Amino acid sequence: MAVNPKGLLSVALVALSAIAVASANVYAQDYFKGKTMKIIVAYGAGGTYDQYSRIFARRLAALLPGKPTIIVQNMTGGGGLKAMNWAYNIMSPDGYGLLMPIDNAVVNQLLLPEKVHYDARNFTWIGTSNQTNMVIIIRSDTGVRDWKDLLKRNTVGATAGASGHDYVTMSLARSLLGFNVKLVKGYKGATATTHAVEQGEAEMNCNNWLAYASKVPQWFKGDKPFARAIIQMGVFRDPDLPPTVPLLSELAKDPIDKAAVEFAGVAGLLGRGLVVPPKTPSHVIKALRVAYDKMNDSDDFKAELKKRRLRLMPAKGADIQKIVNKAVNDSSPQVVARARELIYGK
Q1: 144 pLDDT band (50/70/90 cuts)?
Q2: Sequence-ordered list of residues with C-beta below 8 angstroms from that of 104, at least 6 positions apart, any chain
Q3: Residue boundaries of the structural domains of the chain
């Protein structure tokens, strides 16, 4: 019987491919088995960064080969920059340490080069599970029903710090629309600023909408709500907000101002996800991305997020990587300078 050499070659290639895949799986299992991994969170306990991270830790531990232990560590300070800088420069690039990056990572890199000691393009993005707009809210007992009412009064707002997305959003709105808001810095994340509003230390704050929808949904219900959403910032309108809440970019009149707001608004696309530092091995990145995508596709994961009033708007790591690279590479110096002037006055 004649033997077809091409047929034998095809069979051999398939066999070798199967062996390679099996070997990679065994290697990945050995790599993570018995290890304790850590997710670093840039803000305090209780906010959406913290909530998503703790769910990620539990679910990824079950999905990664070798089923490692994953713990969460909150590293607050500098409006999120302490954790960002630490992860980029000190975290070991072995895949056992991950960071939930702040959504303002790209904006800060371009606006605050003297404080930022990382290049967002050199983090490897594993994936994200939500994208969300920043929303400015204010207590209803101030008499404010929409942003125009802010022009008639002095207001106190609570923020994490000058590099936080809350400060950036409120400062942009203040400069563009001309209202007088004193921004008090130093709160340790969304939970702390929300508590400040609840206790009357501040009248206004700004968080992603999920921070309110998951923690204080009762604030916005009924004919006499405790608080009202008045402005949102992002690339698109949040589908969960009333149509009466405008995008800040819609209120900007000058083209350069509109471009500055749109530049800052790209932060919402980064959402809640995970990155690893530069020089993390490619085989580790692949294993992490595969596990992360499986988590996003899991019905149990979706059900848990729904139960906790959290939202799933997933994106793959490679896609977020492209958004980050484009945002940094394509940002006009003129637009960045105008955004810096509007936010920081310089």
Answers
A1: very high
A2: 79, 80, 163, 164, 165, 168, 267
A3: 8-131+270-332, 134-267+340-344
Cα atoms in the Cβ-side hemisphere of radius 13 Å centred on 42: 27
Q: Quick one: 134-267+340-344 is in which CATH superfamily?
A: Periplasmic binding protein-like II (3.40.190.10)
Has this prediction a pTM greater than 0.85? no
Exposure of 321 in the CB half-sphere (CA atoms within 13 A): 14
Nearest to 118 by CA among 128, 104, 131: 104
Q: What one-character DSSP code corresponds to residue 247? A: B
Scanning the structure block, which residue is given the tokens 């959402």?
Answer: 271
Interval 42-67 mean pLDDT? 94
Q: How far apart are CA 99 and CA 80, in angstroms?
A: 11
Tell me the mean pLDDT in the region 248-260.
93
CATH architecture, domain 8-131+270-332: 3-Layer(aba) Sandwich (3.40)
List pLDDT tens digits, range 109-126: 988 899 999 999 999 999
By residue count, the chain amounts to 346
**Do 134-267+340-344 and 8-131+270-332 fall under one CATH topology?**
yes
For tokens 């400060």, the residue is 167
* List of residues 6+ apart from 269 with CB closer than 8 A: 131, 235, 315, 320, 323
CB 162 within 8 A of CB 185: yes
Taking residues 252-258, report their average pLDDT. Answer: 93
Q: Which two tokens stand for residue 135?
A: 């929303």
Q: Which of 109, 133, 102 is nearest to 248 (CA)?
A: 133
- Report, as an integer, the average pLDDT of 221-234: 95
